[in-house]
């Protein structure tokens, strides 16, 4: 039994703020949305899993959800996924590693330590950079960076 939107479940929050999936009169509290391909196709493929990681529902896109449910999912994902996007490199302490990088991200200015070149991985047209603190920074598209930022990056690639 599917609603007009093609989704056969509802999402709500319980009194503790946990996400709840309701299907056929049965409630599953504490469910978690998980992207299938968070880096390469973040808008496609999303599972709703229970506390044990069992898939309860699958969505090809978030667009299939009603507005309220979509907001619940987006809120949950924003709490779980923290991957600032580097928009400009301000400077690096040295061209050897470890080095301290000063960057501007979509979430503000910050600095982090790069332990080694192996912590920079190509990802399509962009990069994934892992800091020594465990935060993953993304460069969505190398071509979108300014010339000075690209020059700094080239020394590490």
Polypeptide structure, described:
With 157 residues, this protein is mostly beta strands. It is built from 2 helices and 12 strands; from the N terminus they run ββββββαββββββα. It has helices at residues 67-80, 147-154, and strands at residues 10-13, 19-23, 26-29, 32-35, 46-49, 55-59, 86-92, 99-105, 108-114, 120-123, 126-130, 136-139. The strands form 4 sheets. The protein has a 3-stranded antiparallel beta sheet with strand order 1-2-3, with helices on one face. Strands 4-5-6 form a 3-stranded antiparallel beta sheet. Strand 2 (19-23) and strand 3 (26-29) form a beta hairpin. The termini are far apart.
Short description:
With 157 residues, the protein is mainly beta. The chain is built from two helices and twelve strands, in the order ββββββαββββββα.
Q: Keyphrases for this structure?
A:
single chain; about 160 residues; mainly beta; three-stranded antiparallel sheet; 2 helices; about 15% helix; elongated
């Amino acid at each position: 039994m599917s609603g007009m939107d093609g989704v056969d479940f509802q999402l709500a929050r319980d009194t503790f703020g946990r996400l709840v999936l309701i299907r056929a009169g049965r409630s599953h509290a504490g469910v978690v949305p998980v992207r299938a391909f968070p880096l390469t196709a973040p808008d496609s493929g999303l599972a709703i899993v229970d506390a044990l990681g069992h898939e309860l529902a699958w969505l090809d896109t978030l667009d299939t959800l009603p507005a309220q449910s979509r907001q619940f999912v987006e809120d949950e994902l924003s709490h779980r996924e923290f991957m600032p996007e580097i928009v400009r490199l301000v400077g690096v302490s040295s061209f050897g590693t470890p080095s301290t990088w000063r960057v501007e991200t979509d979430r503000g200015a910050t600095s982090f330590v790069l332990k080694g070149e192996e912590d920079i991985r190509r990802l399509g047209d962009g990069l994934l950079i892992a800091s020594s603190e465990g935060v993953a920074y993304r460069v969505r598209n190398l071509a979108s960076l300014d010339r000075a930022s690209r020059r700094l990056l080239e020394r590490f690639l």
